Amino acid sequence: MLIFEHSLEGRHTASQMPTAVDGQSAAAALEDIPAGQLRKSKPLLPEVSELQAVRHYTRLSQRNFSIDTEFYPLGSCTMKYNPRACNSLAMLPGFLGRHPYAPPRFSQGFMQILFELQEMLKAVTGMRGVSLTPMAGAQGEFAGVAMIRAYHEARGDNTRDEILVPDAAHGTNPATAIMCGYKVREIPTDAEGDVDLEALRNAVGPQTAGIMLTNPSTLGVFERRIREIASIVHQAGGLLYYDGANLNAILGKVRPGDMGFDVIHMNLHKTFSTPHGGGGPGSGAVGVSERLLPFLPVPIVGKVNKEDRVLTLKDPAIAGQAEAFRWLDEKDLPQSIGRLSGFMGNAGILLRAYIYMRMLGRQGMPRVADYATLNANYLMARLTRQGFDAAFPKRRATHEFILTLKRQAKTLGVNTMAFAKRLLDKGFHAPTTYFPLLVPECLLIEPTETESKQELDRFVDAMCEVLREAEASPELVTSAPHSLPVRRLDDVRAAKDLDLTWSAAG
Amino acid sequence: MPFIPHTENDVQAMLAAIGINSIDELFDEIPGELRIHDLPEIPAAINEMEITRLMYERAARDQSPLCFIGAGAYEHHIPAAVWQVATRGEFYSSYTPYQAEASQGTLQLIYEYQTMMTGLTGMDVSNASLYDGASALSEAVLMGIRANRKSRGKRILMPTSVNPVYRACTHGIVKNQGVELIEVPYSRDTGLTALEALERHDGEDIAALVVQQPNFFGSLEEVDALTDWAHANNALLIAVVNPMALAVLKPPGQWGGQGADIACGDGQPLGAPLSSGGPYYGFMCCKEAHVRQMPGRIVGRTVDADGRQGFVLTLQAREQHIRRSKATSNICTNQGLVVTASTIYMAIMGPEGLFRTAAASHANTRTLLQRLVSIAGVERVFAGPFFHEAVLRLNRPVQDVLAAMADEGVLGGYALGKDYPELGEALLVCATETKTEADLDRYAAALSRALSD
Amino acid sequence: MSTSIPEELRYNKSHEWVRDDGDGLFTVGITDHAQKALGDLVYVEAAEVGNVVSADDACCVVESVKAASDVYSPLDGEIVEANEALEDSPELVNNDPYGDGWLFRIKPTTPADFDALLDADAYAGLLSEEE
Lengths: 506, 453, 131
Fold this sequence. Notes:
The complex is a heterotrimer of chains A (506), B (453) and C (131).
Chain A: H1 23-28, H2 50-61, H3 84-90, H4 93-96, H5 108-125, E1 129-131, H6 137-154, E2 162-166, H7 172-179, E3 183-187, H8 197-203, E4 208-214, H9 226-235, E5 239-244, H10 256-259, E6 263-266, H11 268-271, E7 286-288, E8 300-304, E9 324-328, H12 347-385, E10 389-390, E11 401-404, H13 406-412, H14 416-425, E12 432-433, E13 442-445, H15 453-472, H16 474-478, H17 491-496
Parallel strand pairs in A: 2-3, 2-4, 4-5, 5-6
Antiparallel strand pairs in A: 1-7, 6-7, 8-9, 10-11, 11-13, 12-13
Helix pairs in contact in A: 3-12, 5-12, 6-7, 12-15
Chain B: H1 8-18, H2 48-61, E1 66-67, H3 80-86, H4 89-92, H5 104-121, E2 125-126, H6 133-147, E3 155-159, H7 164-174, E4 180-184, H8 195-199, E5 208-213, H9 223-232, E6 236-241, E7 262-266, E8 282-286, E9 299-303, E10 309-313, H10 320-323, H11 336-373, E11 378-380, E12 390-394, H12 398-407, E13 410-411, E14 414-415, E15 426-429, H13 437-452
Parallel strand pairs in B: 1-13, 3-4, 3-5, 5-6, 6-7
Antiparallel strand pairs in B: 2-8, 7-8, 9-10, 11-12, 12-15, 14-15
Helix pairs in contact in B: 3-11, 5-11, 6-7, 11-13, 12-13
Chain C: E1 10-11, E2 16-20, E3 26-30, H1 32-38, E4 41-45, E5 52-53, E6 58-64, E7 68-72, E8 77-82, H2 85-88, H3 92-95, E9 104-108, H4 113-116, H5 120-130
Antiparallel strand pairs in C: 1-2, 2-3, 3-9, 4-6, 5-8, 6-7, 8-9
């Protein structure tokens, strides 16, 4: 049932109504607004009791898979445990009640957190400056490419109109380059999963503004010749953009700044465990090398001394001499690419990332990469031994790896989609399917460090069960799922006969 | 080890299964000269008890001043049930609902959300949300250019009565795509976008006109006339609206003869705490004819193999993971968790709750204004109707007055001098339904003292 | 899966077909192979009548649940008609790609360019290479 179908006209939740007005005085309160500006009829909203609403949405929640209820090995999404403390502490009244325009004297606690978060992110990525304002990975990407553009323009270098993107890249990379006014040129991948260096050499030139890379790549392998790639692109005058989607794999092991990247975005909702929330809010902080510092999006938290001299950005030796925190804005960074959000990005999400990072601490960061990688390689070893084909069997898995079901699809007529749906029946969220596009019938599997060996073993058992079912009774698999609230949904009908809102008429 | 469940026995068994001797061997494809072995700048780990204490201290340091600032973020009461239910693990820790059969909770909720937003805005369709109000406007501008088949250009009329941060953010996001944002001045008497100023653009190729209601000053624009002007000039009308205000104000779908084409704004007033500016969510609704140009996720209702009702992400071919460089936007996420809270908020408040909240907020602001203009040195800047926010002019420097009021724990409003220096010592003030008579008195007394010092 | 490649048509390597209508106009659609690869179509964004296009310009879009694909004009010329029936019934492209599922008609600048397009054998060869 939909919430609207619980609705009865005239039902109110009295305890939630403001006391200043009742039904009649509310209308009177609007008497100074001309009738032509007022709403004539009530909006279509449900009229239910508080209990009805709570019960309805609690029941809806039970129709979801989630990390808290199921193993969620969704490749490239880093579905690790979201510690509860990160949520409850980010929702302390002092943080929730703070207006974004509250003056600095009522903001020092909050700003100190953001400042320390900026510093920690600089340290783990090897970058020189960080801005926390992008509200998602895609916005971080946008900020990154916009900074590349601003850098070239500031130098009067206006001929660069092309961004290079490996063919294995996430779809946001080319979409972002277009949003920044660039053309996109794809660079092929070689059979081992690395960027084809010969093709790269042929592609760079005076038109190259930069390259967007993920490392480890979306193919689940580490790009071994990254220093060579950096030097080819830099020699052509281009900059290197690092897509931080896979930062979990290398945390505390190797830093994008040391690999030669000029600008990066980090998905705090992946590596630093802020919630995915059914599709957001994310957080896509950006980090830059020395030459891109002036272009960072604002606002940024700065530490100032008694003379209001900003002690960050160019001046890492700040310990002990600071007086206060204040916002750095367009006045401090006149070449900034500007603002990306109404205020300070997804501030509450930044608090969660900070709490998580403090609990991991110096020792905990590299452990993330250690155990995420151990779990992925263990799963790959066990699954290939059970008869599954790895896409890159000769390579180490990073924090994720790819299986291809091409053989099974051909011989058994069971494709990856069906396989994934049947896994749902077994109580496991499906891995990422059909991405990256380069590998046919693929499953991209990322277990994350927070899953136990015992859970991974259960997942291997489930994969083997589905494989045996596909061999014995393929129709059981192709018609899955069977045990969820709904069976396979007709998405052709959904797209053809659009039904996007409920109406009483049906 | 924080959040890592492995025992030493587990690790040994796993290494054996892989056929290696140590975890470190797993990183042997990373060139040795790039490896780091310590992060000296990161502080040592602290446990949950220690971080709890630390966060309580930091939160307490920021105190809780009595806040009369609006300017795009509004303090409203939020029922306790809203965030308790929204942060249930099944909502909080789920992913974007790509696997529809395993995500019916989130998908149905978004379908209900879409219905509620079209109800409030009077538009045909809604997406599943964007990042925030400012970035939603930038997406609406890009969408307006795609959707307007009669306009060949990329020129947008942007009144200066639109929230200045929204304008700045939009400029930053669209400037690299050759979009021209043309400012339209406001009338100094009314604070409204002047039709005469628009008429200078009669007959030009304009892709869309943006109208904010209430505008940044809290004043109510002549939305019918502005909408009709846009349509007469083959421009689309992009409405930027406060969704709480729509509980009492005419919805964009009914503006002028044909209604707005796109309505967007920030959903924060509907159940999201002030929270230093985020996470909020941007909403976007449009006429059905433009739905394929709309960015972001959209949920549709369909049936399963047994004919039962179910919900899926639909129209996905517009999006980046399929269309890549030809997508409507690079956006992947919505603000799912905040939308979840907001949907529960709207369900609990219902039409009557929203109506009374909006009316009480307006009544409080009006009462406050009446008290303040009786103080010597305080006057309203704009005549004419407003909704729950308005501009005052002071006979002393605003920054000094705000600082003095802050000494008494009162945040007196948003200083307009930076964005609108022509208005002089102007202050934007808002009192929502959360303010009591005593709060209004406290504000008036603090302002009075600050001005008489 | 067998795929139909009518002898009398010409083809483009991006999987459009072209028919010489004999009246100076040419009809364009997507091939049986292309519609099978896309799956059930849910929407066709019609070509804009009156548009002057160059060969290999994208001039309309066909959309399935999982993919959206540009359709490229095989010839230089002006779009003179678009198939309006597809607005309500995009499935015509799946059911009858060479008949009722046609996409648009074009008046070419140089009709002789038609002869330079792939013939049925060459297109069949292209498909077997792609396999």
